[in-house]
Amino acid sequence: MSERATVDAFSVAADTPSKIRFHITGAVLNGTVLLAGLVCLFATWQKNQPSCPWLLLALLAGVYAADLVSGLLHWAFDTWFDEDITFLRRMVLQVREHHVFPNRIFHISFLHDAGTLSWISLILTAPVVLGVMLFGAGPAGGSVILATAIFSVLLVSMLAFHKCGHRARQPLWIRLLQRSGLLLSVHHHSQHHLGNHDYNYCIINGWADRTLGRLGLFRGLEWVISRLSGAQPQRNDHEWLRRFRRKVVGRRTA
Ligand SMILES: [Zn+2]
Ligand SMILES: [Zn+2]
């Protein structure tokens, strides 16, 4: 299939007005929950002001959780889903095209991804924020809301971080953040694309790849899911590679 054909496949899956309304609804609901949590945090700041260690912990936990969820989402799309799932079709096409033509990422609209990711953020954060607002969480309540807010903002902005992992030329401050390990580096993310798309899934900064990933999180989850469902990991991704005459190499063990 030619590159032109993938563009056609992608445009077939372009968003309809109802899907755009769906994305906007997700963004508004997620923003509302986030705002409610932050208002609650600042309204009770005098009474429940988190101490410096709790603030630092909230920051690290929010960043780590966002990186981990970015990796789990990327892994799920690379490993298990295919374009025949109507609800996920556009996202799967986007991910497959990105493997075959990595620079296509710069054609993807931030707003589209932010809309879809807002729903995922809403599902994960709303129970936490509403739980803290309704029942409190003692002295840690403020830190939990702060960590949740950091998590949500980073997760919804995932595409911007992913693009940093592809840009050959970056401003100095981005390169410094990448060198310090605080932001996804081109070197870290290139190992996902140069191999068989089964390594370095995380796209915020790679912290979860270097910890849980190296400990075998993704291979362990695949083993469990394969045993339970009989499904073959990366079946659809390998089909796409063969369709474009790209080499399918052996899978990494961790
Ligand atoms: Zn990429
Ligand atoms: Zn991938």
Structure commentary:
The structure is a single chain. Helix content is 69%, strand content 0%. α2 (17-43) runs antiparallel to α7 (141-156), α4 packs parallel to α7 and α6 (110-135) runs antiparallel to α7 (141-156). The two termini are 32 Å apart. With 254 residues, it is mainly α. The protein has helices spanning 3-12, 17-43, 45-48, 52-79, 89-100, 110-135, 141-156, 158-164, 172-179, 186-194, 207-213, 217-229, 235-243. The mean pLDDT is 87. The protein is built from 13 helices and no strands. The longest helix is centred in the N-terminal third of the chain and has 28 residues, at 52-79. One zinc ion binds at residues 98, 102, 105, 162, 165-166, 189, 193.
Summarize the structure.
The protein contains 13 helices and no strands.
Task: Provide key terms for this protein.
254 residues, 13 helices, mainly alpha, binds zinc ion
Helix-strand pattern, N to C?
Answer: HHHHHHHHHHHHH
- Overall, the morphology is globular
Q: In terms of structural class, how would the helical and strand content be classed? A: mainly alpha
Small molecules (ligands, ions, cofactors) in the structure: zinc ion
> What would you report as the Rg, rounded to the nearest angstrom?
19 Å
Amount of helix:
55-70%
| Count of DSSP-assigned helices | 13
SSE topology:
Blueprint: H1 3-12, H2 17-43, H3 45-48, H4 52-79, H5 89-100, H6 110-135, H7 141-156, H8 158-164, H9 172-179, H10 186-194, H11 207-213, H12 217-229, H13 235-243
The chain binds zinc ion (2 copies).
